[in-house]
Design a protein that fits this description.
This protein is mainly α. Helix content is about 70%, strand content about 0%. The chain has one domain: Ferritin, core subunit, four-helix bundle (Ferritin).
Length: about 160
């Protein structure tokens, strides 16, 4: 996708647009997982995660609309895109349950890192708190996916 280049974002706005898009994709993936699982409890959990990701998108859109305040002189963002990219081996819509869980774990880890790093870049305490809260929610999602992965994969091995 990036041709091996160390691409960087040109602005915080670029980072936030990327994050908003990632939240949309995560919500879609979690709805797909909900449709694939036969366990009612897990289906409800995934549907809840999808709603949470949609909520994250709204929070990010608000931050984007209001602007992420940065220290003077930091107009560009020294964050390498490749640190946060997660690409599946195949088309998301064709993933089996186990592969979708792996993708979900990777996406949650990348989102956690992105929000944590963005929180370090802002001087606005309210925005910082929102970003750190988003990071913690992503960490909780990742842990829940890891537990489900262990429950699904361990019995098979």
């Amino acid at each position: 996708m990036l041709g091996g280049k160390m691409a960087t974002w040109n602005s915080v706005d670029d980072v936030l647009r990327y994050a908003i898009n990632q939240e949309e994709e995560a919500a879609d993936l979690y709805r797909q997982l909900a449709a694939q699982t036969k366990k009612l409890g897990m289906r409800q959990l995934y549907e809840g995660f999808a709603r949470e990701e949609e909520g994250h998108k709204i929070k990010l859109m608000t931050i984007r609309a209001e602007g992420l305040r940065q220290p003077a002189g930091e107009q560009t963002v020294d964050m390498k895109m490749t640190d946060y990219l997660v690409e599946p081996a195949a088309d998301d819509s064709e993933l089996g349950y186990q592969d979708a869980l792996i993708l979900a774990m990777k996406r949650e880890k990348a989102a956690f890192r992105l929000y944590s790093d963005l929180a370090e870049k802002t001087t606005d305490p309210e925005v910082k708190a929102t970003l750190l809260s988003l990071a913690q929610e992503e960490a909780k999602h990742k842990l829940r996916f890891e537990i489900e992965y262990d429950d699904v994969v361990q019995p098979a091995n």
